[in-house]
Amino acid sequence: MRPITALSAVIAVVLCTMPIVAKAQDASEKEIERYREMISDPMSNPGFLAVDRGEQLWAEKRGTKNVSLESCDLGLGAGKLEGAFAQLPRYFKDADRVMDLEQRLLWCMQNLQGLDTKDVVARRFSGPGKPSDMEDLVAFIANKSSGMKIEPQLSHPKEQEMAAVGEELFHRRGGVMDFSCSTCHGAEGKRIRLQALPYLAGPGKDAQVTMASWPTYRVSQSALRTFQHRLWDCYRQQRWPAPEYGSDGITALTLYLNKIAAGGELAVPSIKR
């Protein structure tokens, strides 16, 4: 009877402490939400400085052809920006590829402007004293879709294929820790320390809120960050090799996540911890 008595005591202790743990988590969630509300004022969001810089870069004549990006077609016609980000990634006939915003911008720089993008790619993510043209341009263009719904483009066979590849990548395990995206985001209610993790293995509010909030200004990094950076950081945390900037793998993951986030209302650039 003694082992049973001891086991009963342990179970009783666990049951008694569960409400305390749940209460602590609830309190933490409320504090995190209160913090998010405090920093969510658009008028105090430094990410809009990137929007302004991006607007200047969009109109700046550069490259061997000395032209601006204003004739770049992001899917809705040359130079048309309103709503374009909400429908990316998408298939582009002139490139015969499915592209996300960053891939399309690099394509336009190379083909319309005649710009050597080596330096642009080298500064793909900003740092102290190192501005990023791509982060600024993405912030400017994405902001033109703010308030609009995410509309994943899936009518072309290559778009359907890209979304299917993205879903496969989301669940693919690898790296020294045998992790995948779904390790953290494949079930509801998961968390890391105090941070709740969004469920991204299927359609729902979590996916909509997540995808509708990038690009964002990261207070902890004092920089605007794009979704390319978010995925790069996810792979770094999984101890996978760093994905190539503007790679088809990143585009595939983005299209898959936009597929399950369809209908989410964009509010960008947002501001996060």
From TrEMBL:
InterPro entries according to UniProt: Cyt_c-like_dom, Cyt_c-like_dom_sf, SoxA
Cofactor(s) the protein requires to work: heme
Catalytic activity: L-cysteinyl-[SoxY protein] + thiosulfate + 2 Fe(III)-[cytochrome c] = S-sulfosulfanyl-L-cysteinyl-[SoxY protein] + 2 Fe(II)-[cytochrome c] + 2 H(+); S-sulfanyl-L-cysteinyl-[SoxY protein] + thiosulfate + 2 Fe(III)-[cytochrome c] = S-(2-sulfodisulfanyl)-L-cysteinyl-[SoxY protein] + 2 Fe(II)-[cytochrome c] + 2 H(+)
EC number: 2.8.5.2
Binding positions for heme c 1 per the UniProt entry: C72, C108
Positions annotated to bind heme c 2: C181, C184, H185, C234
GO CC terms of this entry: cytochrome complex; periplasmic space
Active-site residue numbers: C234
SUPFAM superfamilies cross-referenced by the UniProt entry: Cytochrome c
Molecular function terms, GO-annotated: electron transfer activity; heme binding; metal ion binding; oxidoreductase activity, acting on a sulfur group of donors, cytochrome as acceptor; transferase activity
Residues of the Cytochrome c domain: 161-261
Note describing how the cofactor binds: Binds 2 heme groups per subunit.
Protein's UniProt keywords contain Plastid: no
Entry keyword annotation includes DNA repair: no
Superkingdom in the source lineage: Bacteria
Subcellular location: Periplasm
Signal sequence, renumbered to the chain: 1-24
Protein known as: SoxAX cytochrome complex subunit A
